[in-house]
Design brief:
73 residues, alpha+beta, CBS-domain, 2 helices, 2 strands
């Protein structure tokens, strides 16, 4: 049964937890998913894929801004 292999103690985050904090927690704890809890209620689930996608998107925006700066300077 799943109960025999599931995690017993869950790491959870709150909706206002930063992406960077989630990444650190996931990396250090070697987990791929974090339940998002608010007022003792599950409101979502964040995966490592969600985190990586967001970080890549942020980096692409910064790269585009830097390219524009260099181009017009």
């Amino acid at each position: 049964p799943v109960g025999d292999i599931m995690s017993q103690k869950l790491l959870v985050v709150h909706p206002d937890t930063s992406i960077q904090d989630c990444m650190v927690l996931m990396t250090e704890s070697r987990v791929r998913h974090l339940p998002v809890v608010e007022n003792d209620r599950l409101v979502g689930l964040v995966s490592i894929g969600d985190i990586v996608k967001d970080i890549i998107t942020e980096q692409q925006v910064v790269i585009e801004q830097l390219e524009q700066y260099v181009y017009y300077s």
